[in-house]
Specification:
Layout (H helix, E strand, L loop, with lengths): L36 H9 L30 E2 L1 H14 L5 H9 L13 E3 L4 E3 L4 H16 L10
Antiparallel strand pairs: 1-2, 2-3
């Protein structure tokens, strides 16, 4: 199955559902303007309860995501996806404090005892699984550097 030719029975099909991974096209890939109408419209949907964890400000990859330890949709979110969405919120002007909120408030309870961000948190923001992802930690460092500089840092070369 590919996004352009879905052959599964999922609703909505992969080529029709919002996916927080797409926000990486803005940061760090730098190929889509975070203020574009489509990106702003998509990130605005990320506040829909079906796309967020119930008890914490963390967006899932997409509504009813079943890439979980149980293989079924579970309430919860992906901290790195929330970081990507927050850069879009920040850069598009939808929420100028989104990145600061992520760094100083939202990500704090999601961390492990070793102060690392997991791949996934449950609906209450507790660590769910895969806590030693170096790319997730690297993205967090770039996010903090972006906050300090007041502009996105770690972008791919210009479009």
């Amino acid at each position: 199955m590919t996004a352009d030719q879905p052959d599964g029975t999922e609703e909505p099909p992969p080529d029709r559902r919002p996916d927080a991974a797409a926000f990486m096209a803005c940061w760090p890939w730098n190929v889509v303007d975070p203020g574009s109408d489509r990106v702003v419209a998509t990130v605005s949907h990320a506040d829909d309860p079906t796309w967020k964890a119930d008890g914490t400000d963390c967006v899932g990859r997409y509504p009813d995501d079943d890439f979980t330890p149980t293989g079924t949709a579970e309430d919860g979110g992906w901290p790195v996806s929330e970081a990507y969405a927050d850069v879009v919120r920040w850069q598009s002007g939808l929420d100028p404090t989104a990145v600061a909120d992520y760094v100083y408030r939202h990500s704090q309870p999601w961390r492990t005892a070793a102060d690392l961000l997991p791949e996934r948190v449950d609906g209450d923001g507790r660590v769910r699984w895969n806590s030693n992802l170096q790319w997730s930690q690297a993205m967090y460092v770039l996010l903090v550097e972006s906050l300090v500089r007041g502009e996105p840092f770690g972008l791919a070369p210009g479009r």
